[in-house]
Amino acid sequence: MKPALVVVGLSGGVDSAVTAWLLKQQGHEVVGIFMKNWEDDDDSEYCSSNVDFVDAAAVADVIGIEIEHVNFAADYKDRVFAEFLREYQAGRTPNPDVLCNAEIKFKAFLDHAMRLGADKIATGHYARVRERAGVFELLKGLDPLKDQSYFLHRLDQAQLSKTWFPIGEWPKTEVRRIADEIGLPNAKKKDSTGICFIGERPFREFLNRYLSHQPGPIVDDRGRTLGQHLGLSFYTLGQRQGLGIGGVKTRGAARGAGDHAPWFVARKDLARNTLFVVQGHQHPWLLSSGLRFEDASWVAGVAPADGALAAKARYRQADADCRLSASGHDFALDFGAPQWAVTPGQSAVLYDGEVCLGGGVIASMS
């Protein structure tokens, strides 16, 4: 492989650190970029961008590369956060990480890297890129527990042609081992589990500052009012924690039956400002045999042909067999087995084996 100028997105985490090291070992000229995407209350206990930058700078020093601190906060607020709030206000549950990748990491960051004269950009995502017959394919990462192709499904040919994912070929355990072996200062740093710009802060507390909300009834599938919700925007389908309701006794039921079974959010009625909950993980209201999605984006630039594929309706989900059918700009998926807690606003992502084809935003389910 011919040496290239590669600009690496250094987040302060171990994955991007090992990415930069691998590229340097391969003989490439590597420059690190730390992306600052959020400025509101950045000095709070939850936002760790300052700590992350210190970690990223320490990594750059050990590897022996330059690092630049670039502020994309204005782009983020306009392109990602505004859409994020619109979706929540409409009662849906958006996936900001998908939008952040498409609009910031592989658009604003990519553009910045190209202005620096980069041949390629690289990030610490667990995914792979393969070129076949002049077409760039997005492939799953080889570690099935860490594969992040779901979050990258909106990338297009121009973006993929300029992108490398070096650790997509490795299991996470090997990435940690390499980091420890070469003495990276963040080798044992915990993975971030927070949304890409919020960090680890309490999510409801965060949303409360930006969204108008109106309390309303929490109702079960038998029409009984069990309590009050704080505002429909604060809840998502399948949610079990933070509902503030206990078990409800059923007259005549056997002792203990149904008393303490967990409740799950099953439906949101915006017109009546009502949150519907059910007991039991496999309640029919939580299962969908199909869905419709819109705002589709296809890696190859064109939609796949109607027919049998596989799909994920949420990130932490096994690929599910389905049939794709198109009607204009709308697409429908019919599943071979019911899917749990399909959620409007989340992404439906399609696969053909290890190849991620693209997907869109879930509009409704059936």
Q: Please, could you describe this protein's structure?
A:
The chain folds into 3 domains: 5-204, Rossmann fold (3-Layer(aba) Sandwich), CATH 3.40.50; 213-281, SH3 type barrels; 286-365, Translation factors (Elongation Factor Tu (Ef-tu), domain 3, Beta Barrel). It has helices spanning 14-25, 49-63, 73-89, 96-115, 157-160, 172-181, 203-208, and strands spanning 5-9, 29-36, 66-71, 120-122, 127-132, 135-140, 163-164, 216-220, 225-229, 263-269, 274-279, 287-298, 307-312, 320-327, 330-340, 347-352, 355-365. Helix 1 (14-25) packs parallel to helix 2, helix 1 packs across helix 6 and helix 3 runs antiparallel to helix 4 (96-115). It contains 7 helices and 17 strands. By secondary structure, the chain is an alpha/beta fold.
Question: Percent range for helical residues?
Answer: 10-25%
Supply the number of structural domains: 3
Q: C-alpha Rg, in Å? A: 22 Å
Number of strands: 17
Q: If helices are DSSP runs of H or I spanning 4 or more residues, what is the number of helices?
A: 7
Q: Which class of secondary structure composition applies to the elements?
A: alpha/beta
Question: Terminal Cα separation, in Å?
Answer: 49 Å
CATH class of the largest domain: Alpha Beta
* Molecular shape: globular
